[in-house]
Every structure is written in C-alpha cells, then in structure tokens.
C-alpha cells in the first residue's frame, strides 16, 4: 500500500485579501478617515507586539491588479486567534471600508520525506521549529497562489510510492536552492482546511524572480506532471509607516 508521508505542522495561517471601498472612503469625513487610520495603526502595533514576543507573525502587501487591494498573511498558534484577528479587523473603523476579496486557511507544513538522521526526530530540532513558526520576511514583494498535486489515471501523485515522491521533491528542492537569497518560500498545507492542497507564499526583493522560479519549476517533474495551480496574487510591501499616505485622499 502507498504510504502517506508524515507532516510536521506549525502555526496556522490566514491569507486575508480585502478590497477597499474607495467610493465610501472618499465620501467619509476627514475625522472618520483619521479615526479609521489611527485605529488600524493601533492594530498593526498590537500585531507587531505579538511578533516581537514570537507568538505569531504577519505581513501586509498592496495587491497589484484588480483581484484585491490588500493582502494580509497572519500566522498564529491557533485557529481561534486567526478568527479573533479577522473579527477585530471587521469591527474596526477601517473595516467599514473593507470588502472581502478572498481568503485562504492553511498551516505551515514541512514533510518527513528524508529518513531521520542519527535517529533524531527532525521535529525536535530548533531549526525545524523555527521553520514551522517563522517570522515572515518583510521583503519588497509577495506572490501567493494555491496548488494541488494531480490525481488522474496517468498522473496520480497519490499512487506514487513514498520514496519516488521524496526523490521528486528532492529534485524540486535543488531548483529552489538556486534562488537562495532571492526567493523565500513558505509552504502551508491546506488539505481538509481549504479548497486546494497547499498554499505557496513567496517573498522576493525583485518581482521578476517570481516569474523565473515558477517558470523554472514548471519543468521539474513534480510540477510538470503532478502540479495544478490556482489563482496568483502579487503585491508590494506596505510598511506601517506608509499606511497613512497610502490611504490619504
Ligand atoms: C524557494 C525555494 C524552494 C525550496 C528550497 C523548496 C524546497 C522544498 C523541499 C525541500 C520540500 C520537501 C520537504 C518539505 O519541506 O516539505 C518542498 C515541498 C514543497 N514545495 Fe518547495 N521549495 C521551494 C519553492 C517552492 C515553490 C516555488 C513551489 C511552488 C511550485 C511551483 O511549481 O510553482 C513549491 C511547492 C512546494 C510544495 C507544494 C511542497 C509540498 C509538497 C508535498 O507533496 O509534500 N516550493 N519544497
């Protein structure tokens, strides 16, 4: 029987995409807008404090194109906390001007394809724990998309033996390693949590690197034969200190 791989799972993840209701925002009074911005900055400060304490992490980017205006990615130890964040944002003054655009629920995931070295469970290693509970990079650009592994008669990932899948992912990692320092990936598993099987979140200093890595990986067998992809979202970093000028009318 084909064996499932054991996964190591870390912080829960919420990608929360919002569109700004610019018409309502422009019609709001100066005082209302100021209140909304100040309240939102307070939320950002609160989330920063959580990150400082290493109890979670978050990033905020401006989406390029019409799919949404903003993408938040939140990581927290529990799903309840993700719910709380979402609700707090909805109840905030700025929330009155945010329309839901898209969301994605998943959990930071690493898999145990490689045999344990010296009998040590990799999950116990501090470096593994740091990858399962990552502080998200605040690099200039983000690219997020969901993906599946194919399950068709000829190309079925789920009928491949574990060692074959491990070898294909090893080849995949060799392509990935060429982008060290240029692209940082956070893979989140979403089987049973959302509509696709994985979320792929990439960070880069240079947006062209997204095109280059995704294109190069299309030729890796794990993607060319077994990859199916959803909608792509690309954005530019929105640091706290630029929020007010971004929202200024
Ligand atoms: C930026 C570089 C980079 C690097 C170094 C890297 C390495 C690795 C390693 C070592 C492993 C396997 C073990 C583990 O850690 O789980 C993975 C696993 C995975 N990857 Fe990856 N990946 C990268 C990057 C990277 C990209 C750009 C994509 C999107 C693929 C594309 O075609 O658009 C991707 C996808 C995945 C997925 C969906 C999984 C889980 C698959 C599963 O079936 O379990 N990944 N990945």
Automatic annotation (TrEMBL):
Pathway: Porphyrin-containing compound metabolism; protoheme biosynthesis
Naturally occurring in which organism (per UniProt): Virgibacillus profundi
Known EC number: 1.3.98.5
One Pfam assignment: Chlor_dismutase
GO molecular function, one term: oxidoreductase activity, acting on the CH-CH group of donors, oxygen as acceptor
Keywords: Heme, Heme biosynthesis, Iron, Metal-binding, Oxidoreductase, Peroxidase
Gene: chdC
Protein name in the entry: Coproheme decarboxylase
Residues annotated as catalytic: 145
Details of cofactor binding: Fe-coproporphyrin III acts as both substrate and redox cofactor.
Cofactor(s) in the UniProt record: Fe-coproporphyrin III
PANTHER family: COPROHEME DECARBOXYLASE, HEME-DEPENDENT PEROXIDASE YWFI-RELATED
Family stated for the protein in its record: Belongs to the ChdC family. Type 1 subfamily.
Catalyses which reaction(s): Fe-coproporphyrin III + 2 H2O2 + 2 H(+) = heme b + 2 CO2 + 4 H2O; Fe-coproporphyrin III + H2O2 + H(+) = harderoheme III + CO2 + 2 H2O; harderoheme III + H2O2 + H(+) = heme b + CO2 + 2 H2O
Annotated residues for binding of Fe-coproporphyrin III: 131, 145-149, 172, 185, 223
GO terms of biological process kind: heme B biosynthetic process
Keyword Oxidoreductase: yes
Physiological role: Involved in coproporphyrin-dependent heme b biosynthesis. Catalyzes the decarboxylation of Fe-coproporphyrin III (coproheme) to heme b (protoheme IX), the last step of the pathway. The reaction occurs in a stepwise manner with a three-propionate intermediate.
């Amino acid at each position: 029987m084909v064996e499932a791989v054991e996964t190591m799972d870390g912080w829960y993840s919420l990608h929360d995409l919002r569109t700004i209701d610019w018409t309502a925002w422009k019609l709001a009074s100066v005082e209302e807008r100021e209140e909304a911005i100040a309240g939102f900055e307070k939320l950002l400060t609160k989330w920063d404090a959580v990150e400082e304490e290493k109890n979670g992490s978050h990033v905020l980017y401006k989406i390029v194109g019409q799919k949404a205006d903003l993408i938040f990615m939140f990581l927290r130890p529990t799903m309840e906390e993700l719910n709380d964040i979402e609700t707090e944002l909805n109840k905030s003054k700025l929330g009155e001007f945010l329309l839901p655009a898209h969301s994605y629920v998943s959990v930071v995931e690493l898999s145990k394809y490689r045999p344990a070295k010296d009998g040590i469970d990799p999950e116990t290693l501090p470096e593994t724990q740091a990858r399962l509970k990552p502080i998200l990079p605040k690099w200039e650009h983000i690219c997020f998309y969901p993906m599946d592994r194919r399950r068709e008669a000829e190309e079925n990932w789920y009928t491949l033996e574990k060692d074959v899948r491990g070898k294909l992912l090893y080849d995949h990692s060799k392509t990935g390693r060429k982008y060290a320092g240029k692209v940082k990936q956070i893979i989140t598993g979403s089987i049973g949590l959302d509509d696709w099987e994985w979320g792929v979140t990439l960070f880069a200093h240079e947006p062209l690197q997204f095109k280059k890595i995704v294109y190069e990986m299309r030729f890796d067998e794990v993607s060319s034969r077994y990859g199916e992809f959803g909608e792509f979202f690309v954005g530019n970093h929105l640091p706290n200190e630029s929020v007010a000028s971004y929202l200024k009318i």
